[in-house]
Structure to design on (425 residues):
């Protein structure tokens, strides 16, 4: 009988590939298992491409299973070549140590580390790789892997066939290291399942293969869908326009707006992937949208749900205040910290110590190209200062325009905003 939990993962479209599903299903029906997922600290923050994995681990834990996180303190020094167009930049140990602490803090907000037998645990694979003997590793691990099989995997084949970007032996060895992770985790922590993004299928398969060869035991692999950008490239640390989980790198407001601006066709799919709402409720929302066209409300529901999960309710309230200000002209409730979010990455901003007048401000904010064009915009009732319309073509900013003595919100129409940040010498 299909376990209720695996059935839910299927209904949420969270399973791309799964090995020996019938056997894994039987195990999950009988007992709680330990599973793991690895994260290489190749930057100082995780990003939204990792969110599906973190939330999937949380789903397993909520169903009684024990999640183990492996931080790749060792493997991050090499870098996973899977489906990368070129070799990653090598990182230095000092950076990695700092990044690990930041990433551990992020992961800790998703999982429960004090809930009994299924408490989550974080391990660093540097603890078992740092003293490993190279010759022993090649003899005891490398002998089980066929070069022919490895080079025919899609994850590396595209690099091998490229003249301009081949693959180094360093990168090529990554799959063996990740396979060894799985072996160690099985031996020491009874981990029988590894999960990862669908681009990790080759690496996960290597671990299952190694455990079978060394111990004659069967373990399992499960991959989840990759989060793909509109240009077909997966979200990652090395890609452009990364949406980070760290609020200092991507503000909660920009994070929220990302979800508000996704394609309409992705809303209900993402609700299944990223939220804990029942699938039946999500399907009902989709049916109601087909009748009543309520996609904006459902996008907002998605954005609020994920923003609260990642950044907490306090930051969600800040996002809602900013949204009220920008879209509904309610500037009175906005705080100084809210303006700092806008300055970070919420809307375009400029830093000035002095501006001649409103006409010049429109030029500096790229709302116009000349003073003549600025005059026309002001006279056409298109310009607002701190959400209040201004039709004075000769207007000069006064102290009360500088909220918190630092910020002035200049707007052209309903959707174009620029934050003037006053700097004093």
């Amino acid at each position: 009988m299909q376990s209720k939990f695996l059935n839910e993962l299927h209904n949420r479209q969270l399973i791309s590939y799964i090995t020996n599903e019938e056997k894994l299903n039987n195990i999950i029906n009988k007992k709680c298992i330990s599973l793991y997922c690895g994260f290489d600290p190749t930057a100082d923050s995780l990003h939204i491409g990792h969110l599906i994995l973190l939330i999937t681990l949380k789903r397993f834990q909520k169903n009684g299973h024990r999640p183990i996180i492996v931080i790749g303190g060792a493997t991050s020094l090499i870098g996973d070549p899977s489906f990368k167009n070129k070799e990653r930049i090598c990182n230095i140990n000092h950076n990695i140590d700092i990044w690990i602490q930041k990433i551990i803090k992020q992961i800790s907000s998703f999982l429960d580390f004090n809930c009994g037998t299924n408490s989550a645990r974080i391990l660093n694979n540097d603890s078992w790789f740092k003293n490993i003997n190279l010759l022993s590793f090649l003899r005891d691990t490398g002998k089980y892997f066929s070069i022919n099989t490895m080079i025919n995997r899609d994850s590396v084949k595209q690099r091998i066939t490229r003249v301009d970007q081949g693959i180094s032996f360093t990168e090529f060895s990554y799959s063996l290291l990740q396979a060894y992770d799985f072996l160690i985790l099985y031996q020491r922590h009874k981990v029988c399942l590894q999960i990862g993004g669908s681009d990790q299928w080759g690496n996960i398969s290597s671990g299952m293969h190694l455990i079978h060869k060394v111990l004659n035991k069967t373990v399992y692999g499960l991959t989840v869908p990759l989060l793909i950008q509109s240009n077909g490239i997966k979200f990652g640390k090395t890609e452009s326009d990364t949406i980070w989980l760290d609020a200092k790198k991507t503000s909660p407001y920009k994070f929220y707006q990302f979800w508000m601006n996704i394609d309409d066709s992705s809303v209900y799919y993402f609700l299944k992937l990223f939220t804990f709402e029942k699938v039946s409720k999500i399907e009902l929302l989709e049916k109601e949208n087909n009748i009543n066209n309520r996609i904006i409300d459902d996008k907002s529901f998605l954005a609020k749900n994920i923003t609260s999960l990642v950044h907490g309710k306090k930051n969600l309230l800040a996002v809602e205040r900013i949204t009220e200000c920008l879209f509904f002209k309610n500037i009175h409730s906005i705080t100084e910290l809210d303006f700092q979010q806008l300055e970070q990455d919420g809307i375009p901003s400029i830093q000035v110590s002095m501006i001649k007048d409103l006409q010049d401000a429109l030029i500096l904010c790229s709302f116009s190209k000349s003073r003549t064009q600025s005059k026309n915009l002001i006279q056409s009732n298109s310009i607002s200062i701190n959400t209040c319309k201004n039709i004075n073509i000769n207007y000069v900013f006064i102290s009360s325009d500088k909220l918190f003595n630092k910020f002035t919100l200049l707007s052209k129409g309903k959707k174009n905003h620029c934050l003037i940040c006053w700097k004093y010498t």
